[in-house]
């Protein structure tokens, strides 16, 4: 198995013949659409069927309840857990269900022997995220008791196998109370066989300043939770300047810090399953990038005759194209950037990979994961 980067004059027949694999497999694994045009610089995953499964890996990802049936069916065979996004709560501690009914998603996961995990976020009844809800909840023993009671009921009746706490922008003054809340969840739900995981903002030091970081204690949350996921993405984001979503040099810094605070076997590396397309010139507060998947990004490059380049520091692909007189800059993930993250998992002995999010299916990612790892089944 290896990665082939398309050169001028290449076509699928030539690449398949030189690689010694059927052209049908090359096309299927890389989701190359008819008439099978390629972009110069596009990275193709070449799998000859050989596998190195010496490393047992945990595989998970977040999905909204309205995920497409076909995408869900294609993805489930590669997962240990699927995180259902998302449940919220009120100031009084009443659980707020997802805006779309999650029964189908939970049942499909169970039928596929994948563990459905309830994701809890500070999502209010109005459907908006509000970190003030976190403060209200953590300050009220009654609200916490009410919420945990209702969580337990939903976990049992719907068939969830655990809970993932995704509290972002936790205030610095709530740092200790947040750790206590995660510990309380584990204390109450753990004896019934439910796992408790926590999503962590991408810190690089204990002293890191900023609302996203100061309320998150890696060491203590890592002690309380069964598993943590590092949200190692969104350096490049829709409102920010064009850059890689998950530059490897920054991801590495987060991992290097995390393993000093948390047992590596508890750590899941977050991987983005998306990229961004920025219209140029970028103007802060005005420019907004659009989100796209890997195959969408490559198709854009094909349609506009753009060459795809690869940043060796960020370990991420990018390209430019013109449309309606406007120049665009696109950063996304491909098999090269994902393979680099897989190597971090092995290098630091991490538990596995967690994807935000699973709403688009990128087959080459999963074929590569299955070739490089043995996917854990905890069902």
Concise synopsis of the structure shown:
This protein has 379 residues and is an alpha/beta fold. The chain has 12 helices and 17 strands. The mean pLDDT is 97.
Give an account of the 3D structure.
The protein contains 12 helices and 17 strands. Helices cover 34% and strands 22% of the residues. With 379 residues, the chain is an alpha/beta fold. The strands form 3 sheets. An 8-stranded parallel beta barrel has the order 3-4-6-7-8-9-10-16, surrounded by 5 helices. It has helices spanning 12-19, 23-29, 69-75, 103-111, 131-138, 141-158, 175-189, 218-224, 248-261, 294-303, 335-348, 363-372; strands at 2-5, 43-46, 56-63, 81-89, 95-96, 115-120, 162-165, 195-200, 227-230, 267-272, 275-279, 290-292, 309-311, 316-323, 326-331, 352-356, 374-375. α7 links the parallel β7 and β8 (195-200).
Q: SS-based structural class?
A: alpha/beta
Shape: globular
Mean pLDDT: 97
Low-confidence stretches: none
- Which range best describes the helical content: under 10%, 10-25%, 25-40%, 40-55%, 55-70% or over 70%? 25-40%
| Widest beta sheet: strand line-up | 3-4-6-7-8-9-10-16
Would you count the extended β strands for me?
17
Largest sheet: 8 strands, parallel, barrel
